[in-house]
Amino acid sequence: MKILILKLSTILLCVTIFTGCNKDLGLSDKQLLLFQYEYINYAWGYQHSGFYIDNKGNILTYTNPGDWNFSDAGMVITPARILQNLEKCSFSNKSISPGELARYSKHIESIASSKVTAPKNAGADAGSIRFICYRYDEESDIYRGYLIKMDGDFTCENLNFYAKKVSSWMNDIHRDLIGK
């Protein structure tokens, strides 16, 4: 009987991990977008690049896309505007495994409920790198972004215990994408 329970538990765990079930992460099943790494610099000509990570672990990149839909001052953006942005992205031929995606996505809820330090001026002409996680709200049909970390001309960071771990992971993905 114990062996049967163990086997059933293992099967259930595998199904949950490999189907990318957002509900187990406290996220809406309709949530397509989880993370964004974004670099913007206006100092030396307009530069805008980065990547999205969707709920399947796909890494979708962009470089200087035209007519980009930025979130508003409250980091709110509609699903329609997100989809328009995704149409301007390219699949990087790289993806995050279901287990790895689950490991980092489970921190979105706690990062979203944590405070962010005040921005500090750290330089000039370096631009801005933002690490963002998203939550989709079915009731209001919006995505709300939550700042994990910002580097560049100004720096600030989310005070959540896992924020450094998630931003480091995203930075590793960025380095892998650019081949460094």
Can you give a write-up of this model?
By secondary structure, the protein is of the alpha+beta class. The protein is built from five helices and nine strands; from the N terminus they run αββββαβααββββα. The chain has helices spanning 2-19, 79-87, 98-105, 108-112, 163-178, and strands at residues 33-41, 47-54, 58-63, 76-77, 90-95, 120-121, 128-137, 142-152, 154-157. Strands 1, 2, 3, 4, 5, 6, 7, 8 and 9 form a nine-stranded antiparallel sheet that branches. The N and C termini lie far apart (51 Å). The relative contact order is 0.19.
Topology:
Layout: H1 2-19, E1 33-41, E2 47-54, E3 58-63, E4 76-77, H2 79-87, E5 90-95, H3 98-105, H4 108-112, E6 120-121, E7 128-137, E8 142-152, E9 154-157, H5 163-178
Antiparallel strand pairs: 1-2, 1-7, 2-3, 3-5, 4-8, 6-9, 7-8, 8-9
The unreliable regions are: 1-22
Main sheet makeup:
9 strands, antiparallel
Proportion of beta-strand residues: 25-35%
CATH topology: Mago nashi protein
Question: What general outline do the C-alpha atoms trace?
Answer: globular
Order of helices and strands: HEEEEHEHHEEEEH
The helix tally amounts to: 5
Q: What is the highest CATH level, the class?
A: Alpha Beta
Name the average pLDDT. 87
Distance between the termini: 51 Å
Structural domain tally: 1
Q: Approximately how much helix is present in the residues?
A: 25-40%
- Rounded to the nearest angstrom, the radius of gyration is 17 Å
**What's the architecture in CATH terms?**
2-Layer Sandwich
* Number of strand elements: 9
Secondary structure category: alpha+beta
